[in-house]
Design brief:
Blueprint lengths: L3 H4 L1 E9 L10 E4 L5 E3 L5 E6 L5 E5 L6 E4 L8 E3 L9 E3 L5 E3 L7 E5 L22 E5 L8 E5 L12 E4 L2 E2 L32 E7 L2 H4 L10 E6 L9 E13 L21 H6 L13 E3 L5 E3 L6 H5 L3 E13 L3 E13 L6 E15 L3 E15 L13 H5 L31 H7 L1 E20 L2 E20 L10 E24 L2 E26 L10 E26 L3 E12 L8 E12 H4 L6 E15 L11 E4 L11 E4 L3 E2 L7 E14 L4 E20 L8 E24 L3 E18 L6 E6 L6 E5 L6 E4 L25 E5 L4 E11 L2 E11 L2 E4 H8 L14 E6 L5 E6 L4 H6 L9 E3 L2 E12 L12 E16 L18 E2 L6 E11 L1
Parallel strand pairs: 1-7, 13-16, 34-37, 45-51
Antiparallel strand pairs: 1-4, 2-3, 2-5, 5-6, 8-9, 10-15, 11-12, 13-14, 15-16, 17-20, 17-52, 18-19, 20-21, 21-22, 22-23, 23-24, 24-25, 25-26, 26-27, 27-28, 28-29, 29-30, 30-31, 31-35, 32-33, 35-36, 36-37, 37-38, 38-43, 39-40, 40-41, 41-42, 43-44, 44-49, 45-48, 46-47, 49-50, 50-52
Length: 1017
């Protein structure tokens, strides 16, 4: 008992980073086998009482390899911890391009390294995010090379906005608009997707992409951050001897991946008869209501006699193998004072649609320099030239090249219609509806060309006033000019004299920002403060020329039109902002972040033109503060709250605008009158919507960091959404703009990471992300419970926002049934009674997931990504037409002996009607009135990506000096493992607007496969 005190031992010392010698605050120090422990202070110092002079002490810190040290009677033990290679990347890029320790964040942020996008490529890098990040719903449009993307983070937050995130490069926003409006507009522009802003970014220039999902993460961006932020950090140069050279080359081929499951028992024709003359071959060109297919002769639309046999390969026969060849050459170099990276890249794509091409050339220069100890310079310049030719149309039939291969009679080969025009250059007829264009005429005679020149420039200068105080001034400019020409040629059967559309768009965004940063420590506390101001100037200038009737046939010029109209659009907006943030930490264990931003808007009335956006978030690292079970290596809890803005009103909707018009229809003379141009009543009290987000989460790591869990719950409420509601015509206006809409998005996100095997020769990493979003429309406007957002061709289905229901609800009709489930028929017409409009499902999938497996064996690696979306519905316009034309398998009923329809009348009596097989087309044509017949579960699981790589052992190559080299087999969208749509891909979207849930004869979805070569000198 007297000797017991002599067995105790007190040790002290300092813990540092073995890499740079910096002190490590918050390191956990525990006596092995006991509950005694402490943590290092802000300078890395510690002191601990041990039970025995021979005790073993464990030093652990997130991101570093834990060390066990025997006290061995010593009183001072200094330890240097090495970074854990398996845990690198704990520092992530956040708002304004600021790098922060991930454990200090009170919100969820996910970072994806640039290498994820440079092998198995997408032409639009945003599409490559599909399945990689929990809560991010990424979809590429069915519009071919150069097409737009649609990214939704944690659900749709606005009834009227595009709901896509803000894109930011190196801390400064860039423009992501589609010239002329969202993809696939109506009118003379040909329903062509003209590409968004992110499509112009070269993946090889990307160092990392951080997705700021929560309001707190994005709050410093104020009114533009309601839908989250995607931060792109570009690659920089580094100090090295000589010039580093990197070459990345990828060649891929792509083919149509989904083929409709049509019926091939009865062939082309009508009234159970096959065509016997060319006139019948044309009149019945898109009808498959003919005789039983027997191999006998028939006459097709080309006037020739062919075997009456099933033609099952029209999709393969019309669409070609697409090819994309991408090459990037990058040079890096510099010293400790100045470094640079310069790259040039060329993407050359030939789409699966004949004559469709897309080319993107990119030059990128990044310079970083230090002038003494006080001044640092950052500069970025990127120039992109995009050219497209004959991009596909979508939606309705006119000018849509995808119509014929799907709708041609099932015993006709589409190649019989080539080249689509006669000796005079006029369209060759193939069916009874001139609006249904001959696809070969479209690809050979329609003309669509667009060119986009874009420059992104940034210049930042940092001056270090004191050791812990610096100021930074940054100027960025994103500018593009876009020219688009669409020619509907002379000789088009539906519009014989042709049409012409020309679109010229100039868009610029200029941001100037000044910030001051201050960092210090006092005692156990750390402080980081930021204050700044920003001015955003955005200009959108557009000239849209539309004309019809070419005066001189076949001469396509804006000067050769009988009638023309030119509509200018000039929008100028400015937003002035001040902002600030304060980050506090205690012993590297507890963290608190507070931000605030005040925006002033030029598009709002002076009495209501400013809004303040606050946020607060905190995190607490349990594993560094208390002794947890040894099973748990790391544990952090976090919570945050924020308000951000969005859906800023467009210019000129706050006050009424006027134009000069002639009196009584007479030409303009000395006296003119003013008239209101906008049919909607403006509102001087309009303001941006407010998105209030609350989230909580936990980050856990177990079993020596072999198992990890990142779990988040969020609740996002949108208020003051801008809704355009109808007004009484007696007021003189059609509608009025109001701040009344309310939406709510709440959900849960989880990321599970597993490292089952980790040896020197073999490794297996697995990650699974899953997210569920519950979206609900809370309020529209007084007296309005439903608002129509979109309608399909033919008004066969609608997408509505309905109070109390999910955002983007598909609305339509069904066949009326009685209490026993029997269909109720009209005894007069023999058709099923049509219900009133009703809700039929969600247009947006609430459940998304992604599963990534990475295997490594010596110099070989294999990456496999599966992703899926569940819970939504898709209405197919293509199937409506296919049903009317007799191509769906359901139309086989009644082909042999007619169709007996037995149902219940409105009085409850049994009703029987005999439909002769000659009249089946009329009967099935009526099915277009029942939306639910063509509504499908849009759920799917896809094998999204496969990369099989071999790292070439460059040390064995004596004839050339290489740093590294790899060759890979790459593939995207290889297989659809599960789907409920037999005739189309459930992702067959043709618009990047918020109105999702329709399929409408867009370009077929494709699978791509090829090779990638990366060489570094």
């Amino acid at each position: 008992m007297l000797s017991a005190p002599t067995l105790a031992q007190t040790i002290s010392g300092k813990v540092t980073n073995a890499g740079d010698g910096a002190s490590l605050p918050g390191v956990t120090i525990v006596e092995k086998g006991s509950t005694k422990g402490t943590v290092t202070d802000s300078d890395g110092n510690y002191s601990i009482n041990l039970s025995s002079p021979q005790a073993t002490v464990i030093f652990s810190y997130i991101g570093f390899v834990a060390q066990e040290v025997s006290a061995a009677g010593r009183s001072t033990i200094n330890v240097s911890l090495k970074e854990d290679a398996t845990q690198l990347g704990e520092v992530v890029v956040t708002a304004l391009g600021i790098a922060k320790d991930k454990k200090a964040l009170g919100y969820s942020v996910t970072e994806v390294k640039g290498a994820e996008f440079t092998q198995a490529r997408e032409n639009n890098v945003a599409n490559a995010l599909s399945g990689k990040i929990a809560g991010v719903n990424a979809t590429g449009l069915s519009t071919g090379p150069g097409g737009s993307s649609r990214i939704i983070i944690r659900g749709n937050g606005s009834l009227t906005g595009d709901n896509q995130p803000l894109y930011v490069i190196n801390g400064m926003p860039i423009d992501n608009t589609v010239p002329g409006g969202s993809a696939t507009p109506n009118g003379g522009q040909g329903n062509v997707d003209r590409g968004d802003g992110i499509a112009g970014i070269n993946p090889d220039d990307i160092e990392s992409i951080s997705v700021l999902k929560g309001g707190t993460a994005a709050a410093l961006y104020g009114s533009r951050a309601a839908n989250g932020v995607i931060l792109i950090t570009t690659k920089k140069g580094k100090a090295q001897r000589g010039i580093g050279v990197e070459y990345n080359s990828t060649f891929t081929m792509e083919n149509a991946a989904v083929f409709p499951d049509w019926q091939y028992e009865y062939g082309q024709g009508d009234g159970a008869a096959k065509p016997t003359t060319q006139a019948q071959g044309i009149a019945w060109g898109r009808r498959s209501w003919g005789a039983k297919i027997d191999g006998s002769d028939f006459v097709a639309a080309d006037g020739l006699t062919h075997p009456y046999s099933a033609q099952k390969n029209n999709i393969k026969n019309f669409y070609q193998t697409g090819k994309t060849f991408t090459n990037t050459l990058a040079f890096t170099g510099g010293n400790e004072k100045v470094n640079y990276r310069f790259s040039v890249a060329d993407l050359d794509a030939k789409g699966i649609l004949p004559t469709n091409t897309y080319n993107r050339k990119t030059g990128n220069l990044n310079i970083n320099g230090a002038f003494g100890e006080k001044i640092a310079l950052e500069a970025l310049a990127q120039y992109t030239l995009e050219t497209g030719h004959n991009k596909t149309g979508a939606g309705d039939a006119l000018g849509n090249p995808n119509w014929t291969p799907y709708m041609i009679g099932n015993t006709s080969d589409i190649r019989w219609l080539s080249p689509g025009y006669d000796a005079s250059g006029n369209e060759i007829a193939w069916n009874d509806a001139d609006i249904a264009s001959n696809s070969y005429f479209v690809v050979n005679k329609y003309k669509q060309d667009d060119t986009k020149n874009r420059f992104i420039g940034q210049l930042g200068l940092t001056y270090k006033i004191l050791k812990n105080l610096s100021v930074k001034g940054t100027v960025s400019r994103d500018f593009y000019n876009y020219n688009y020409t669409y020619v509907l040629p002379t000789g088009t059967r539906y519009i014989p004299n042709g049409q012409y559309n020309q679109l010229k768009t100039d868009v610029s965004e200029t941001n100037t920002m000044l910030t001051a940063n201050y960092n210090t420590t006092f005692g156990h506390f750390g402080l980081s403060a930021l204050a700044g101001m920003n001015q955003r100037s955005f200009n959108y200038n557009q000239l849209n020329l539309f004309g019809s009737t070419f005066t001189i046939p076949y001469f396509y010029s804006s000067t050769n039109l009988a009638t023309t109209s030119t509509v200018p659009l000039n929008q100028h907006t400015r937003t002035n902002s001040v902002f600030g943030s304060v980050d506090l930490d205690y012993k590297g264990v507890a963290f608190l972040t507070m931000t605030g931003r005040q925006d002033w808007f030029s598009t709002l009335s002076p009495k209501n033109n400013t809004i303040f956006y606050p946020s607060v978030g905190g995190s607490f690292v349990l594993s560094q503060a208390i002794q947890l079970p040894r099973l748990i290596d790391y544990a952090k809890v976090r919570a945050s709250w924020a308000q951000v803005g969005g859906a800023t009103p467009d210019p000129y909707v706050v006050n009424l605008t006027y134009s000069m018009v002639p009196s009584s229809g007479q030409p303009l003379q000395n006296v003119t009158t003013n008239t209101v141009v906008n049919g909607g009543l403006t509102n001087s009290d309009l303001k941006p919507l407010t998105s209030t987000t609350f989230e909580v989460g936990v980050d856990l790591q177990f079993l020596n960091k072999r198992l990890g869990l990142d779990l988040t719950y969020y609740n996002r409420a949108t208020t003051n959404d801008i809704v355009q509601t109808s007004t009484s015509p007696t007021s003189g206006y059609n509608s009025v703009y109001l701040n009344v809409g309310k939406l709510n998005n709440r959900g849960i996100e989880a990321l599970v990471t597993v490292n089952p095997i980790r040896t020197s020769n073999f490794g297996w990493n697995l990650s699974y992300n899953v997210a569920y979003n519950d979206s609900k429309v809370i309020k529209l406007a007084d007296g309005i419970s439903s608002m129509q957002m979109a309608t399909s061709v033919g008004n066969w289905a609608y997408i509505n926002s309905i109070e109390g229901r999910s955002y983007g609800t598909i609305v339509g009709t069904t066949r009326v049934r009685d209490a026993n489930g029997n269909i109720v028929y009209d005894p007069t017409t023999g058709f099923a009674q049509k219900s009133a409009l009703q809700e039929l499902g969600k247009g947006v999938p609430p459940l998304t997931m992604g599963l990534t497996n990475e295997f490594r064996y010596k110099n070989f690696s294999l990456n496999i990504l599966l992703d899926g979306k569940f819970g939504n519905k898709v209405f197919s316009v293509m199937e409506v037409y296919a049903n009317r034309m007799g191509k769906l398998k359901r139309t086989l009923d009644g082909r042999e002996n007619g169709l007996t329809v037995t149902g219940v009348t409105a009085k409850g009596d049994v009703y029987t009607n005999k439909v002769a097989k000659e009249n089946l087309r009329t009967y099935y044509d009526n099915d277009k009135n029942y939306t639910d017949l063509f509504l499908h579960d849009g759920s799917f699981v896809k094998l999204r990506q496969v990369i099989f790589s071999y790292n070439i052992p460059v040390s064995t190559l004596k004839f050339v000096r290489l740093q590294s080299a790899s060759v890979s087999f790459v593939a995207r969208n290889l297989l659809t493992l599960y789907k409920q749509t037999d005739n189309f891909d459930p992702e067959q979207s043709f618009t990047n607007s918020s109105n999702q849930g329709f399929e409408s004869l867009g370009l077929p979805r494709t699978r791509s496969y090829g090779v990638n070569l990366i060489v570094k000198f």
